[in-house]
Write a structure and sequence with these properties.
It contains 2 helices and 11 strands, in the order ααβββββββββββ. The chain is mainly beta. It starts with 9 loop residues before the first helix and ends with a strand.
Length: about 160
């Protein structure tokens, strides 16, 4: 949908010189040329690839669950919430996944680290379950879940 260069597709709208998301998929100039719809692709960039989503009102509790998908080697997203800046950046190289997470003051997060072995996940080179401000919660599917307080964390796992 994002890269499709024929209608309907966002790339098609760019080919028609649209600079914002238009109301009509055919970029009809008689309709709105700056239209908020129910499904922006950028929502997936933040919640999907970046993994940032609120788990409680006001972002007091946050879920960080990035979608490490396909042949993408990296992604990053940051969001300025009422609590402060939330950030997740991940990159894959040499069979390893490195994930940087920033949780603002006054907030907590459940961080889903894609991992083949939860015990092999590190945070700032220490076993994650022993790192300051990090608590192992459980393994779910192919992710190890860690609860954190506010701060900056650098997780690493085998991809």
């Amino acid at each position: 949908m994002v890269t499709q260069d024929s209608g309907p597709g966002y790339a098609y709208q760019l080919q028609k010189n649209a600079t914002t998301l238009t109301e009509a998929w055919d970029t009809n100039p008689a309709s709105s040329q700056n239209h908020c719809m129910l499904g922006h692709a950028e929502e997936w960039f933040y919640r999907g690839l970046g993994g940032i989503s609120p788990a409680a009102p006001g972002f007091r509790q946050i879920t960080i669950r990035p979608a490490v998908v396909g042949d993408l080697t990296s992604a990053q997203a940051a969001y300025e919430s009422v609590q402060g800046r939330i950030r997740c950046a991940w990159r894959r190289a040499d069979g390893r996944l490195k994930m940087d997470v920033e949780v603002p003051v006054g907030a907590e997060a459940d961080v889903y680290v894609p991992a083949k072995d939860a015990q092999a996940v590190t945070e700032s080179t220490k076993p994650a379950a022993q790192a300051e401000g990090v608590t192992f919660v459980k393994t779910e599917g192919s992710a190890a879940i860690f609860h954190t307080g506010s701060g900056v964390y650098r997780f690493e796992s085998r991809d």
